[in-house]
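Listing S7. Sequence submitted for prediction.
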Amino acid sequence: FGDADRENAIKMFNLPKIKTSIFRHSIDTIFWHPEIKKTDEHILSVGSDPRRDYETLVRSQRTFKVKILTRLNIKKFEHFENLEIIKGSFHNKGISHLELKNLYNSATVIVVPIKNVLQPSGYSVTMQALACGKPVIIPKFRGLWDKDSFIHLKNCIFYDPEDIEDLGEKINMIMNDKKLQKSIGENARKLAIKVFNLERTN
């Protein structure tokens, strides 16, 4: 699914590179689009991949409200004052695509916290959020897919993987800068349309 895990697989299984290829993910940028929603100021994070690093996210933030939609067991964080664990599971049809789109559009910023792994985790959520014109904060982890497409402070915000302080600083920076939110959000939408549209998977 990404360059990093392709290279890792080639080494691990001693494969000729010419016999491998990458399956590039994409999304429907017509369905996933920006909508104006009334919202309180908050951070949203979505995903149930075990490679999600919700601990770093939760511990990084004491100022702004954090909402997490996941099937992972994160009950140990329930006591954190600013955390809301959203009930329902997208994969078990508790949350529809339409409801998920509303969640994205109601958030100020989307954080996709991922451990420093080789697997290309977080692409679906990232692409959906970008298409909704939302600023996305994502770690520059080993398995980051489409490395050439992302530009820090232009169409996304990078942080050092598994670094609580760095993620906290990046969150505070974007949450306190409406102008930056707007510019990154607009460029995020442009990136989704130009690069992550359905044509590349077709």
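Caption to Listing S7: primary sequence and predicted structure tokens for the chain studied. Helices lie at 3-13, 54-60, 97-106, 123-131, 164-175, 178-194. The beta strands are 42-46, 65-69, 83-86, 109-111, 136-139, 157-159.
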